[in-house]
């Protein structure tokens, strides 16, 4: 009878991949031949279906009945490691004044298997799911986080299945000169991601007594540094899949889980103001940033606006849309750079928040100078972007300054506004995290780090 647990786990995995892949493909079909990104539809569908699951009694808030989908929603760091690596490569090329990406090892097929999706893109989507799930399971087993998880006893079997499929899955219609070498690159990339996950988690735990930096901060430093050391590395199947579909796939799981909490959230006293600011605040900082880029920086081009706001708010959705190519090749190349730069500011964020949490009130005398510092970077960004005249290096420099400055303004501006409005620090943290989507996605990851620390 114990062997049946593996069959149940396989059923959960099978349902998750079918549900997630269908949602991603449906989203791509809806926006096919339009200027919209599939991530927009993923958000709407994910929240709606997650809410319906709870409303109809199919699941409880949190989707505990679908543990594979919950697991998928916790793979943010894995998808971003690939983006950080490419960002490091682009930063190195910028410093070396070598513009443009490395030549791809794959010539993608152009035949559509679903409206809006080619056969190569479909393989990337399926492979991204298996990579996210498999790498997360391996990481959980190595750190002991699999203990107590509903599927924990089956992690080894499921990880073997996921990693195995991800490593051998390939589009027969795509043109690949050296298929054996290409697949071997995928294996090396999987091993590198697992290594970064393990080391970054240990570093986060080790330094937690000094500063509460999350795992993703160290993962960003390591993967970006690796990208700068290896600027000529041409992406294998792992990087290609995660860059194209990693963020859309994990966001599907994230919004399904998030949608399941929507009805519950509105019923919690005091949380309505957090939700309202989460929505209104993101509109304010997003369109405020766009207004600055368009009217003050004179950078009214998608190649500037999309990656600039992806970095300026650590916006996972915009980042995924850029790296998937929804906004063109230039935006796809610039987005990884822009989301790397603002993570330096997390040193200030978590230091000040940790000190504020201890006192139970925001240290406004620290946040106000940082807001001014952020505005200074935004001013420099506008100055550089206005005189860029289409020069790639100058535009990238200006966008880097804007991404760093505007995220400092948005994060600490949000905390300062909410502080003077009388919102408690714990509620303000949730509201401000909703403005920067990446920060919101990292809460589950921080909980895992704390759990591991307690066991040690």
Note the gap between the termini.
Answer: 34 Å
Rg, nearest Å? 21 Å
Q: Unreliable stretches, pLDDT < 50, 5 or more residues? A: 439-456
Strand content: under 5%
Structural class of the secondary structure composition? mainly alpha
Total DSSP helices: 20
Instruction: Tell me the major beta sheet.
Output: 2 strands, antiparallel
> Could you state the order of secondary-structure elements as H and E?
HHHHEEEHHEHHHHHHHHHHHHHH
Please tell me about this protein's structure.
With 456 residues, the chain is an all-alpha fold. The protein is 74% helix and 2% strand. It contains 20 helices and four strands. It has a two-stranded antiparallel sheet with strand order 1-4. Strands 2-3 form a two-stranded antiparallel sheet. Strand 2 (112-114) and strand 3 form a beta hairpin. Helix 4 (76-95) packs across helix 9 (237-260) and helix 9 packs antiparallel against helix 13 (316-323). The radius of gyration is 21 Å and the shape is globular. Residues 439-456 have low confidence and may be disordered.
């Amino acid at each position: 009878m114990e062997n049946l647990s593996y069959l149940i786990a396989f059923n959960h995995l099978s349902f998750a991949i079918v549900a997630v892949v269908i949602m991603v493909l449906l989203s791509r079909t809806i926006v096919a031949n339009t200027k919209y990104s599939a991530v927009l539809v993923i958000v709407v569908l994910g929240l709606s279906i997650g809410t319906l699951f709870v409303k109809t009694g199919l699941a409880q808030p949190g989707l505990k009945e679908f543990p594979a989908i919950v697991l998928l929603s916790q793979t943010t760091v894995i998808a971003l490691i690939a983006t950080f690596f490419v960002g490091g490569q682009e930063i190195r090329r910028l410093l070396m004044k070598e513009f443009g990406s490395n030549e791809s090892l794959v010539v993608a097929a152009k035949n559509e298997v679903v409206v809006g999706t080619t056969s190569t893109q479909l393989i990337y989507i399926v492979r991204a799911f298996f990579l996210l799930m498999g790498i997360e399971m391996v990481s959980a087993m190595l750190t002991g986080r699999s203990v107590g998880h509903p599927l924990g006893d089956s992690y080894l079997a499921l990880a073997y299945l996921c990693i195995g499929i991800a490593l051998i899955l390939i589009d027969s219609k795509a043109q690949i000169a050296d298929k054996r070498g290409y697949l071997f690159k995928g294996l090396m990339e999987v091993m590198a991601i697992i290594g970064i996950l393990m080391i970054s988690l240990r570093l986060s735990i080790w330094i937690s007594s000094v500063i509460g930096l999350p795992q993703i901060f160290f993962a960003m430093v390591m993967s970006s540094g690796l990208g700068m050391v290896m600027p000529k590395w041409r992406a294998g199947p792992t990087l290609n899949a995660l860059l194209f579909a990693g963020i859309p796939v994990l966001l599907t799981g994230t919004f399904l889980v998030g949608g399941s909490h929507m009805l519950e959230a509105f019923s919690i006293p005091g949380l309505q103001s957090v939700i309202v600011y989460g929505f209104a605040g993101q509109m304010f900082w997003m369109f405020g940033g766009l207004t600055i880029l368009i009217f003050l920086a004179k950078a009214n081009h998608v190649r500037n606006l999309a990656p600039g706001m992806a970095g300026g708010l650590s916006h996972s959705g915009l980042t995924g849309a850029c790296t998937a190519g929804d906004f063109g090749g230039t935006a796809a190349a610039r987005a990884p750079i822009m989301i790397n730069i603002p993570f330096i500011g997390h040193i200030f964020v978590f230091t000040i928040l940790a000190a504020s949490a201890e006192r139970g009130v925001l240290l406004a005398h620290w946040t106000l100078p940082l807001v001014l510092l952020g505005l200074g970077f935004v001013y420099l960004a506008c100055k550089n972007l206005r005189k860029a005249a289409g020069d790639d290096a100058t535009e990238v420099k200006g966008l880097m300054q804007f991404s760093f400055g505007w995220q400092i303004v948005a994060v600490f501006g949000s905390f300062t506004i909410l502080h003077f409005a009388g919102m408690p620090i714990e509620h303000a943290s949730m509201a401000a995290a909703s403005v920067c989507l990446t920060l919101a996605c990292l809460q589950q990851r921080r909980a895992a780090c704390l759990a591991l620390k307690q066991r040690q």
